[in-house]
Amino acid sequence: MNIRNSVKAVIIDQGKVLLTKNQDREGIFYLFPGGGQEHGETFHETLVRECIEEIGQPVKIGELLFIREYIGKTHEHAKYDSEVHQVEYYFACELMELNRDQIGTAPDPGQIGTEWAALTNIMNYRVYPQAMRQNIIDVYSGRKSPIYLGNIN
């Protein structure tokens, strides 16, 4: 099993977080913009490229907020992801230009758009990783949160 690095953007403005909106067999779900690191890319290069592809613009990258592992065989999607082992790095980011209509140049399969989700309502969203929703609220409320979150979904 190969381990894949993935880099994600946590973009918050006016109490809302920008997420990609996706659809699967179970309905609508949300992800943080970003994706897999290609050979030879730095994390920053990966994150800028992925944000252009998924939300239509580059981002200004700030501090590392979280590291999360996803070992597919240990989660509810093991039937589809049993061979997946991914380490994700979540960075605080800002949009270069605040544009509420985010349209990517090359959205991921299953991505149907983007959405600004209110942090006060994030626990009601099917956001992956679901276990990280409270950590996002904590960090942006000024509370402490661990950086390494472990194998969560």
UniProtKB/TrEMBL annotation:
Listed cofactors: Mg(2+)
InterPro entries the UniProt entry points to: NUDIX_hydrolase-like_dom_sf, NUDIX_hydrolase_dom
Pfam families: NUDIX
Domain Nudix hydrolase as annotated: residue spans: 2-138
Signal peptide boundaries: none
Keywords linked to the UniProt accession: Hydrolase
Protein name (Swiss-Prot/TrEMBL): ADP-ribose pyrophosphatase YjhB (NUDIX family)
Organism: Peribacillus deserti
